[in-house]
């Protein structure tokens, strides 16, 4: 038998990466739909279209699978944030809220709940959420063209993200789009007021800003 070449190994590695990705995507989808209790390795493997043995080859334990899913969700959320285009502030506020009411955030919420009862997940979830939180804040500041050296601006951005997170939590129970639109519109007014006002409370004239 001849030596295995790089060309021979490449398709196998590609298939392995594809299988791993399907398992991670299936794990996220199962968490979003069924929560932690309903997201067993067998359920995830079936959804991914692979055998339980194949799943355990990549992730020997349930904790291994969902620890990797935590990292995957965090990276996907960061990717979605980085993909937000520079646009007017009303659109930025709406886009940030959308990120907190979509399936990735729903999966992240289930991971938070699981982590509160699963020590194997807790540390990793806390670490990654802190990283995503810092990145979310930084990107929001950039997109809103906000000057955090001015009084109240940092707190306004933090309040905006807390509001978006709260709407994401509420969205788990009911999809009240009309109410959410009104809340987002009001927060846009508050954000505009905070970012456009001078430190002494009088309107600041801006040129060339968003």
UniProtKB/TrEMBL annotation:
Residues 40-59 bind DNA. Keywords: DNA-binding. It comes from the Bacteria. It comes from Streptomyces anatolicus. It holds the Pfam family TetR_N. Residues 17-77 form the HTH tetR-type domain. This is TetR family transcriptional regulator.
């Amino acid at each position: 038998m001849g030596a295995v070449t790089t060309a021979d190994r490449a398709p196998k590695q590609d298939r392995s990466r594809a299988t791993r990705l399907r398992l991670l995507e299936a794990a996220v989808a199962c968490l979003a739909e069924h929560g932690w209790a309903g997201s067993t390795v067998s359920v995830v493997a079936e959804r991914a279209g692979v055998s339980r043995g194949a799943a355990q080859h990549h992730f020997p334990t349930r904790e291994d699978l969902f620890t990797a899913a935590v990292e995957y969700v965090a990276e996907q959320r960061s990717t979605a944030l980085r993909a937000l285009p520079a646009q007017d502030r009303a659109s930025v506020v709406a886009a940030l809220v959308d990120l907190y009411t979509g399936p990735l955030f729903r999966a992240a919420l289930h991971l938070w709940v699981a982590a509160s009862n699963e020590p194997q997940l807790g540390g990793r979830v806390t670490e990654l959420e802190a990283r995503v939180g810092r990145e979310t804040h930084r990107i929001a500041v950039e997109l809103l063209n906000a000057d955090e050296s001015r009084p109240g601006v940092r707190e306004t951005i933090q309040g905006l993200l807390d509001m978006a997170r709260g709407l994401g939590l509420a969205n788990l129970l009911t999809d009240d789009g009309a109410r959410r639109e009104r809340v987002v519109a009001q927060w846009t007014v508050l954000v505009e007021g905070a970012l456009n006002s001078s430190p002494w409370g009088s309107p600041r004239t801006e040129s060339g800003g968003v």
